[in-house]
Amino acid sequence: MVLPVVIITILLKLCSLQMMVLSSPVCRLQGVLVQSAHHLLRDLGGPFPVHCVKYNANISFPDSVLTAVAASHAQCHQVLWVLNESLDGARQVFENHSLPEDGLEWDEVKFDNFQNLQYQLLGEWRCSSNVESSDVLSSYFKNVTAVLQQQDSAACGWMALRRDLLCVLKSALQQYHSCFTWRHARHQH
Ligand SMILES: *[C@@H]1O[C@H](CO)[C@@H](O)[C@H](O)[C@H]1NC(C)=O
Ligand SMILES: *[C@@H]1O[C@H](CO)[C@@H](O)[C@H](O)[C@H]1NC(C)=O
Ligand SMILES: *[C@@H]1O[C@H](CO)[C@@H](O)[C@H](O)[C@H]1NC(C)=O
Ligand SMILES: *[C@@H]1O[C@H](CO)[C@@H](O)[C@H](O)[C@H]1NC(C)=O
After folding, report:
1. Cβ(145) – ligand 4 distance below 6 Å
2. Disulfide engineering: 180 pairs with which of 11, 31, 84, 126, CB 3.0-4.6 Å?
3. Does the Cβ of 80 fall within 6 Å of ligand 1?
4. 71 with 178: CB under 8 angstroms?
5. CATH code of the domain made up of 26-187
6. Which range is the signal sequence, renumbered to this chain (predicted)?
7. What is the residue with the minimal CA distance to atom 5 of ligand 2?
8. pTM for the full predicted model
């Protein structure tokens, strides 16, 4: 079969476009790992409790960092950056503070597995772009820390952190699905 010239040209264009995308300096992150992290975090405890709502004024994740529309190249960069900053900030909180004895009924095994994945994701990061500073999220993490350091509000602080991290993972996966690599999708659970 002889393909019309137009089709061949289109195919060539598609191929070269794909090669350009593959060789461009974006972070490549395994979608399945992010998805597993999301599911573990979602399943390790119950919904955000009503009595913690009063701390929403203290802890408000700056949603504006995630509100972009189509998944263009620059936006993928932005989304992966937000994800990295969020996971790294949460890692620091987990390292610097221990979970309260009371008030949190988190599944320890799932939380451990989540943390292992979190480290794996932070280690998997391969991108050659410049590292930007994270003023946007640093005040968020300061506020989270302030709330979880006080005995009365500690559990709420942890739950707010989990809620916001879950939201970041979920929006990244749902709205920016194509920013991740999905080569090993057959390993999905
Ligand atoms: C991820 O965030 C950490 C902490 O801000 C930073 O040190 C690291 O370079 C970031 N990685 C990328 C690929 O931006
Ligand atoms: C965690 O502790 C390190 C070392 O004390 C500090 O530099 C960092 O800002 C802390 N991060 C958070 C989020 O508490
Ligand atoms: C931090 O807390 C203050 C009040 O304590 C609040 O005005 C501010 O919006 C909070 N910022 C974030 C990012 O949570
Ligand atoms: C929440 O923010 C208010 C107003 O800034 C502050 O007075 C209060 O101490 C904060 N609560 C916690 C638990 O950090």
Report:
1. no
2. 31
3. no
4. yes
5. 1.20.1250.10
6. 1-23
7. 96
8. 0.80
